Amino acid sequence: MSTLGNLKIVQQDKPTKEELEKGEAGPLIAQAAFYVYGALGPGLDESIYKECFYEELKHQNIPFERDVLFPMEYRGRRIEQAFHADFVVGGRAIVFVIAEDKSDLHNFQIRSLLKLSGMQEAFIVNFRVDDMRKGITRAIVQTGNILAEMKKQESVN
Fold it and tell me: Where do the domains of the chain lie?
């Protein structure tokens, strides 16, 4: 059983111009989410948000894959389609788009998916919020022991 290291979970604010210019996955994902939320608002079905998020990633020429299947090994047996991610952005960040009340289950889920995928970063983009800054949760893997730490970042407007 592999260890994941320190997992830090934070809310993602609207990206700054400087962050977007760096081309990192996180600010690009946040920007796409803010555009979709700005156009649609809360209260729609999850499938609509997924489709619009897909269109926004395409429109912004952000490199991504959609409905990515990840294999895993269990007791020496390879399970080919163990789980799927709604999107993988830039080959390095898993993204799940939801439209439901967020719970601790989402934090547990994101921890397990990072562990199984080997990726270093994951996002839950939740469109069932009154403010999109509350709707983007970013989990990053750091060195050390597994920890889930919730931290509200100050708004960068």
Answer: 6-151
Burial of 72 from C-beta contacts in 10 A (0-12 / 13-18 / 19+): middle
Q: What is the pTM of this model?
A: 0.78
Query: How many other C-beta atoms can be found within 10 angstroms of the C-beta atom of residue 12?
Result: 22
DSSP string, 63-108: -EEEEEEEEEEETTEEEEEEEEEEEEETTTEEEEEE-S---HHHHH
Residue 10's CB: how many other CB atoms inside 10 A?
Answer: 15
SS3 call for 50? helix
pLDDT tens digits along 5-56: 455 555 556 555 565 566 678 889 999 999 999 999 999 999 999 999 999 9
Alpha carbon 96 to chain centroid, angstroms:
5
Show Cβ contacts of residue 131 under 8 Å, excluding neighbours closer than 6 positions.
Answer: none
- Between CA 57 and CA 46, with CA 10 as vertex, the angle to 5 degrees is 45
Confidence of residue 112 (pLDDT cuts 50, 70, 90): confident
Structure token pair of residue 73: 């090994």
